[in-house]
Structure formats: C-alpha cells, structure tokens
Amino acid sequence: MELKQITVIGTGLIGGSFGLAIKRHGFRGRVIGCDREAVLDLARKMGAIDRGIPDPQAASAGSDVVLLATPVGTIIDLIERLGPVLPPGTLLTDTGSTKREITARARAVFGQDTERRFLAGHPMAGKEYSGIEHASADLFSGATWIVTRSLNAKSGETATSAGEHSAASDFLALISGIGAHLVYMDVEHHDRVCAWVSHLPQMLSTALAATLADEPLVDCEALELAGRALRDVTRLASSPYSMWRDIALTNSANIQEALLRLEQRLAHLRENLRSAELREEFERANNFRVNGPGGLRANTSEK
Fold this sequence. Notes:
Elements: E1 5-9, H1 13-24, E2 30-34, H2 37-46, E3 51-52, H3 56-60, E4 65-68, H4 72-82, E5 91-94, H5 100-110, H6 114-117, E6 118-119, E7 121-124, E8 144-147, H7 167-177, E9 181-184, H8 187-213, H9 220-224, H10 228-233, H11 241-250, H12 252-271, H13 276-291, H14 294-297
Parallel strand pairs: 1-2, 1-4, 2-3, 4-5, 5-6, 8-9
Antiparallel strand pairs: 7-8
C-alpha cells in the first residue's frame, strides 16, 4: 500500500522534524499534526505539517499511520485512548525513549493483534532543546531508529514487514528514506542499553550542572574561566524535565543500576587521585574513546 496520510501527534522537536524530513524526501501524502494551536500554527508555517487538528482522535481520522511523538507517559495514555477507536488497518507507532511500559500497554489494548497494529519505535536523535522551533529536516539523517518488535528468525525483519506489504513496511521504508538506520532490538534489552548510553549521560550532565549551581565558588567570574569541556559536559543539562520525568519513571531500575555503577567508579577515582590506579582509569577511558563506537572515535582530539 502507499501511505496517503500520516498523523503526527506531538509536533515538537521529534514530530516536527519527522514531518519536515519526510516532506523533504518526497512523501506525497498529507501530514496531519496534533498539538496545541500555537504549536500547530508554527508547524504549518515551517512546512512540517499540512493541517493541524488539536484533538487526537479527530486528527487520526483517515490516516494510514499515527505517530505518537510525545513524552512517554502521554504515549501510554494515547495508546489507551486511540487504540480501541482506530480502524484495524491503521498502524499506531511511537518515538518513546523507553519501551517496556509502552509495549505492555499496547499488548493490553490490541491483544493478539499487537504485532500487526502497533510498531514500537525509538529514534536515537534529538537536541538538548525541545519544541517545534528547533525542528530540523536533518535530525534523523545518519541516526539510529530502533524498532522493538518480534523478529523473523531467518531474515531479521520485523514480523509485520517480512514478506508482507503493509502500512508498517511502508513506514519502515519511509524511515530509511529520511536517512535513519533501522535497528531491531528486544524490548528489555533496549531499555537496559538506553539506560547506559542515553539516560546515564543525561543524569550525569544534570548532576554536574546542579552541583555547580549550588557551589558558591563557581560564580560568574569563575565560569568565564571555563572552557569547552564544561560546556560539552553540561550541554545535556538544558534538556527539559517534562521529557525526562517519564523516562525516569518508566526505566528507573535500569537507570538506578547505571547510576550506582557510576557512583562506584567516581568513588574509585576519588580514592586513587594519588595512585597509579588513576593512570589506569585514564588509559581505560582513552582506549574506549579510540577503539569504541565510531561516533565516539571520530573526535579523539577534543579537549
């Protein structure tokens, strides 16, 4: 089938960027946005959507795909609200940063039809600032878009897309078309991995910035002495609590484990500032940067 209409509920950074991206890459159907009126007005002016409708159910009418690009808690509520009223042929998908509770709610709503009617997704893309005003058609270019679904053991494709032309397969093709790299992953593994590679860096940045904010020694004069290192490490501290609240609530056990391991590592550094152990820690960290993932390896000369 050819997708003729897509509804994006939540036309902020992720949803707005998705609309801009698919339009740039030749999507010929209509994009309906759903958000607050002021957000929808700006999204229309930017060209991210063709029409804005504030009510989610009305905005979803007639769409082949409904993309939920809101905070995790709202995604869970919208699955409960929209799932029972969407036509069987409409695909419901999302961009949530945690997947266990989202997929559990989808299973509760769709039952045995979950694999056919719901596609759990997570684009590993974003900025420290939210909002449609920061949306970009290039946001997903080169980024990973994780899909957490049952896999076909032989082909590695999703159960929906393997040998079947559907809204899901067309949507996945659309994701690839905007330059994102599709990765298929088990739900539990996704939440554990993201706790380490996404959620832990955010908590670290937030903790450092909050510590500095409470330190009397770090005044305006002191901050003028700060270089790129401090700006880089605290960049994520600008991220909104409204988004991270739901991530922390729905992935708390995994984040707690990662934070505990980090606390232990920091204690080890504190206790070995005058020993050879400090050198070994630097060497271990340097090796991770040099021999680790390509995204980290690319800028080993940064200071």
